[in-house]
Structures are given as structure tokens and as C-alpha cells.
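Bench log, entry 3. Co-assembly request; chain sequences pasted below exactly as received.
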Amino acid sequence: MDIFAQQLVNGLVLGSIYALVALGYTMVYGILELINFAHGEVTMIGAMVALAVMGALLGVNPDLPGIMVVIAGALVAIPACMLLGYGIERVAYRPLRHAPRLAPLITAIGVSIILQNVAMLVWGRQYIAFPPILPQISFVVAGAQITAVQLFIVALSIAVMIALWFLVQRTRLGSAMRACAQSREVASLMGIDVNRVISTTFIIGAALAAVAGLMVSAYYGLAHYYMGFMLGLKAFSAAVLGGIGNLGGAVLGGLLLGVIEALGAGYIGDITGGFLGSHYQDVFAFFVLILVLVFRPSGLLGERVAQRA
Amino acid sequence: MSLRGFGLSVLFIAVLAGCGKKDDGVAVIKIGSVAPLSGAQTHIGKDNENGTRLAIDEINAAGLSLGGKPVRLELIGEDDGAEPKTANIVAQKLIDSGVVAVIGHLNSGTSIPAAKLYSDAGIAQISPSATAVKYTAQGYKTAFRVMANDAQQGAVLGQFAVKKLGAKRIALIDDRSAYGQGLADEVEKAVKTAGGSIIDRQYTTDKATDFSAILTAIKAKNADLIVFGGMDPQAGPMAKQMKSLGLKAQLLGADGMQNGNFIKLAAADAEGVIASSPGLPLATMPGGPGFKQRFIAKYGEIQLYAPYAYDATQVLIAAMKRADSAEPAKILAALTQTDHTGVTGPIRFDAKGDVTGGAVTLYQVKGGAWTTLETIK
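Structure output for the full assembly:
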């Protein structure tokens, strides 16, 4: 078996998960220049709602086909998260749209803490297991083992990126979004309903988060009220690494972060002769992030934008 | 805003006041409990607190008198988030609030630094579940534990891996917590003594969910057995990822993962996994099944260490009764004389505060449940 190929696959899968979540961060930032720190928690709620629905369905009839159950879970979790995304924007961000930038950042952290605690009250502190209903199929590609779920995660993040790019670049809604990103005042003078565009952005971002949450819990086999925190942090780093506000950048940053982590964890122990162990994998990833930001402050694919007054 | 704000603050103060103690003339004795009640180990943290609470509720219901006066025990539960720095803050907070003893902390990493503070304050600390050797080896007379330490458990695991399972190429993974690291160190020693060889040692954290990179590295070295020092939230996905990477090695773990949650998380991939746990199987203890029933009736399924937290509290209450006092110094003196049969086994302390003659039991997942393999004394 080719170890390097396997580590590359490990990294790509991990990176695709980061990328899916990072897309949500980057979309909101692109338009509002707001870091929606509650995004990781929306991912968690998506996973929790989907698991609750799946658990209920399997409780009624344990013989339902696994893929149907997962799809049913997604069909409830996605609208639930859309509603949540809309609600968060309406309650925590819209009233502060003209406030100094620090204020919505703080409400974002507040929302994230509230969501964590609500989830803890509703679903408890235990780790919730993903029911073992998906077929365990795995393929061997170039000496590396990859499961069907992993393959699906990678394909999905690429598909979502392309769909989002199409939405932003080729549709009326997309041009309205880009107009709002450039100047909300001028956009509203041109007859664009800025509030609606921003709400829509949050709703789309939340839907992505729901899908990402479901994929993460399917892959690792668990969900937990705390899972959104680290995931959100890594995804945010991925978005910054790729150039926050840039859709392609979010995916590139996510994949890069995942691969660096996997290769770092896999080889660091042997390279340093045991001096640094594999638990330094996070340090490795964040070290690369710092390096990139020192030399390219706007990220890998980010464009230099003039500071607004 | 001012009227509404005023109304809210009045309400808030009223609620706060409502939380105060009932004054029924009975002296209240405060007992601290510390465990992670937030973060990734919340489920087992709350479990410990509930074990302690059950023991306290039972003695309060039965009635307790010290020095001829009726007293009521009050539990003060604190959250250290499994973080060593928070552990010291809450330990000081408990000392300042006048607790006479502390049941905790849950983790070795938090119990070790807090032990100094309790020692300085002269109050007893009984950890239900800190198993790192260092906890009682620091020389503090106030530190006790009711669970066999990692030297005992690690020796059993290492021996078992080499002698019983016939493992030739053993890889170690630990979560870099005081517990995981200490356990892996002890296993390493025991494997070498038994004539086995350690071919790789990898590390993760107690917050990780992705182990594919380190498992791939281990796979490349053809390990036939992996020993994991860590907790169930990591062990579950680890077992799954071993399967999806096509790793054939046997997974062997310890008390941190020997629970129902591990089986739920790893599902079918839990099958065949072996883990040890200090003490005897709950079902074989005289008071075991009864404890399980009473606990489940109040708090739901036992997560992990609740029986040990219950026993630790019972040991403390017994010491108070023997001392006939709630003075910390007298409790401490009485604790060293402990000879208690708890739901997890007989408990006596040696000079360091370790439990003597602690048994270690090995379990294996068969048909989706932990079944007892053997108990080693």
C-alpha cells in the first residue's frame, strides 16, 4: 500500500469537510465583512437535527433503507438550519448593521455560545452516535483505501463550490449579492432589496452548514453539542488561508489545511526522530496559516481591496 | 429601558435569593465535587457529579449526626472543563467557600495540579477516577483515590498484550493528557518487561476526531496490536477509522473507553475490541446491581465512573462518621484508616493514598456488549 497516497486521501477528505464549512464563512464575509462565528454551531445543529430525525424514523421502522433515512434527515435539517440562519441574522446582526464592527463580532460569539448550550439542553451532553445504516463500501485508488462516504464528501464539496460560483456569477441574485458586497448604499439606490439579499446569503450559508454537519457526523460516526467549535475554527482558518470572501479560496484553503494536517501528522514524528509527535498536527496547520498571512495578508486567492472609510 | 431593566433586575435578585439555603437550624456541611461539566467530556463529568450526589442524597435522607448534632451535607459541583488551569481556579474557589473535602477531580491532568492547593488548605481530596501515577506520588498527604492507578492497569495491559494475545508488533497511541500519556508509558514499560516490542508511538489530543493520518502511519509499520490511552469520544471514531483504512490490528484500551458510549460510537466496528477497567465488574459486586438500579432511576444510564464517585463519597462519609466530626484535619486522619466495601470493591489506602490490592478486569466487546474476559489481581 502506498502510504503517501493514503495520507493524501486522508488529507483531501478532511480538507473537503473544512471546505464545505469554510464556504459558508466566506459567503457571509464577502457581502457583510462579518465573521459569522455562529456558523460552526449551525453546522452542529444541522447534524443534531438530522440525527434526531433519523433516530425517530429508525425507531418507527428499523428496516428502512439507510440512504432514504439519511436523505430524510437532510430534508428536515436543511430547512431547520435555513430558518435558524435567517433568525440569527435578523436578531443578532441586522440591528447592529451600522454599529462598529466589533459589536456584531461579539453578538456572533454570543449566538454561538447560546446555540451550544441550547443543544446541550435539548440533546444532552452525550456523544450521539450516527446509526450504522450506510453501506460500508470502500475502493482502492492508487494504493489508497477510500470509503464511499469519503468519496461522496469530496465530490459534494466540489459540486457545492461550482454551484455557488454559478449562483454568484451567473444569476440575478448573484449580481445583487455582488452589488451589495461592493456598496450597500448604492445597491439599495439601484432598487436592490439589501435586507433580502443578506437574508438569502445567510439562508444559503446555513443550508450548506446543515449538509456539512450531516456529512461530518456520517464520516466520524458521531455528533456532539461541542463539535461545531473546533470545526468552525478550522474552517474559518481555511477561509482566511484561501482568501476570505473568495469561494475558490475557501475550497483551496480547506483542502490545503487538510492535506497539511494529514501529512504533518503522518510524517512529523519520523522526520524529527520523535522529537515532535503527531499531536502537533494543529500547530503545523496554523504555522502554515501564519506564514501565508505574513507574506500574503489577503490569503492565497484573496484580492487586495482598498480599506473602506 | 429603565423600567423594564429595573423589573428584570428585581426578578433576577428574587431568583438569586430563592437559590439560597433553607434555614432549618440544621448545620450544613459543604462537600465539593469537580469534574468537566462543559466541553468534550461533559457526559462523564456529569456522571461523576451524579454519583457523588446520589451518595449525598442517600445519607441526607437517612439522616446524619456528627458530634451529637444533626447535620446536612450539601454538594457544591464545580466545572473544570478538563483543563488544568481551570482546575486550580475552581479548587481555590471551593477552598474559599469552606468545603470540608473534595470528590474529584475527574481527570488526572486536573487532579494533579489541584492536589497542591488542597494540601495547602489541609482538606482531603478523593479522586474517583484520576489514575495517573503522579497524582499520589507528589507527596501530598491530602490526596487519595479509589481506583487502581495506571501502573497497575498498564502492567496488566502490557502483560496481557504480549503473553495472552501474543502480539509481536505493538503500536501505542495516547491523547497527551496526563492520564493517556501516563497509561501509555506504563504499558510501554510492561510490554518491554514481558519481552514484546513497541514499533511505533503516535499522539493525538483529547479533542480530536480524525485519526486517519496516525493510523495510516501505524498501518505502514505493520502493527498487529494498537494500545490506546485515552477516552471514549476518541476511541469510538478511532475504531471506525481503523476499519475504513483496512487495519487488521487488535485495538486494546483501558478504563477511559470501557463504556457503553464507545460501543454506540464505534457501532459494528467495536466488535472484538478489548479494554481493561480497574475494579471488579459491577454486576459481580455485592452492592453493584442495587447501585445501578438506584442510579438509573434518578439519572439514567451510567456513563463511566459514577460507581467510583459514589464509593469515594461513601468513603468520605464513613470517615466523617468515624471521626464524629466535619473538621478537615479529623476527616483526614480518619480517611487513612479506611476499610470500606464499596460497590466497586474493597477500599483501603496505602501510605501514598492509593487504593491497595486494586483488581483490574479485562473486557471484550462481543455481540455489541462488553463481556468480562478475566479479572487480574
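Residues 5 and 353 of chain B are 53 Å apart (CA to CA). DSSP finds 13 helices and 15 strands in chain B.
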